[in-house]
Amino acid sequence: xxxxxxxxxxxxxxxxxxxxxxxxxxxxxxxxxxxxxxxxxxxxxxxxxxxxxxxxxxxxxxxxxxxxxxxxxxxxxxxxxxxxxxxxxxxxxxxxxxxxxxxxxxxxxxxxxxxxxxxxxxxxxxxxxxxxxxxxxxxxxxxxxxxxxxxxxxxxxxxxxxxxxxxxxxxxxxxxxxxxxxxxxxxxxxxxxxxxxxxxxxxxxxxxxxxxxxxxxxxxxxxxxxxxxxxxxxxxxxxxxxxxxxxxxxxxxxxxxxxxxxxxxxxxxxxxxxxxxxxxxxxxxxxxxxxxxxxxxxxxxxxxxxxxx
Length: 309
What we know:
Blueprint: E1 27-32, H1 40-49, E2 52-60, H2 66-84, E3 95-101, H3 112-124, E4 130-139, H4 147-164, E5 168-173, H5 176-186, E6 193-195, H6 202-209, E7 215-219, H7 229-234, E8 243-245, H8 267-278, H9 282-296
Parallel strand pairs: 1-2, 2-3, 3-4, 4-5, 5-6, 6-7, 7-8
């Protein structure tokens, strides 16, 4: 029996009163870890109240994937029932889609069996439930797995995404130069490539965007941090149609709640700060982030989703 995974306290965490902006339009959280939240169903209820209508949750095949795969139907039933009884009238639960893969921290556990399981699961789950592979990539900050293992896992998962016709969500930390070279060498999937939780400046953003029109840049809590001006500066070189927003919850809660447990509803704070930086109406940016998410994950009808046969 595996050890119980750490769970974070439910919103609002330490008891602070959390005030979220009204963006004026629905939007998406393109990267969350619902399985790491203390109350995934409650988080989905709060996301619906914040007009988050699409949540993409990461499933790592080396970290108890059954928590999400078995738990999601129940989370959705609980959230749907709670939202049906909203005082102001019923609300729809967010559309939850899954991104499957092996994090670079766990790359040493990515073997032929894991690769076969990843391929099979992407094909076997209900059509459209799996919208991408990830988070895959390189993390040379922590080096929880040997770097050669990270490189091998990154390349093999990237090749698999190309084969399956799915986009990838790429994690890079202290490894952006090498990550860019791997993407250039193996090939950016035509279906899409999301540079997850972007923390670099304009020059790095420009280099990734130049790889392929299918590359998109996703912003999490750091876009709101006082000392992360380079992250906000990068927005000036990224077309609006290539920007995504995420939480990476339960990690990286945005200002002014940095250090608190994070969850999908908090993506509204990231979108609001992106809009402020761009000098654009929040409603326009929220809608663009939603449209971009639906496009890259194949939810707008432009391409099949769920993996190739």
